[in-house]
User: What shape does this take?
Amino acid sequence: MPSAKFEIKRKCQYCGNTFIAKTLDSKYCSRRCSQRAYDQREAAKKRMSQLNDIVENIPEARDYISVHEAVAMFGISRDTIYRLIRKGNVPAINIGQRLTRISKSKLSEMFPLRAEPIDRSRALPKSYHLEPEDCYTIGEISKTYGIDDSTVYAHIRKYSIPTRQIGNFVYAPKEDIDHLYKDVVKS
Ligand SMILES: [Zn+2]
Assistant: This one.
């Protein structure tokens, strides 16, 4: 059976340009974009650890905290905080220019604590329901994404996507397939 060469058209996750991905895992159009995305992730990590340090240094007993500390503690923006103060929704005191203090206990009633980024390695394994209504047949995948059957099978094996055969049809979960090909520009 002749198989067309598989081409994955993707949007670069950094600059948004469409490019031909060499592998299913390619996310960026160029080394430059890949490097910039990496720098961005590193900067975000650094920022997160700075915020954690600030939160750790807020004394439990002190109710009035700085805007800086409130941002770190609740993950809300400075604009949000100043808006709440202007509206009188949060008790605040002004002990000088740039020295606004706001009530931690009041903010706690309004906002959850800033969430840590989710640790992917601790994500629970998905439970698969391979009911036909939650699945595509291989033919449907091939038609939807413009990829020939044998390539679809190869990807299913490579990415350990579960399948189920009913009669003449092989089914694969929609969720996994859509995720796998989510950046493929449908032709
Ligand atoms: Zn790019």
About this structure: The two ends are 22 Å apart (CA to CA). Strands lie at 8-11, 18-21, 64-66, 92-94, 100-103, 135-137, 164-166, 169-173. Residues 118-126 have pLDDT under 50 and may be disordered.
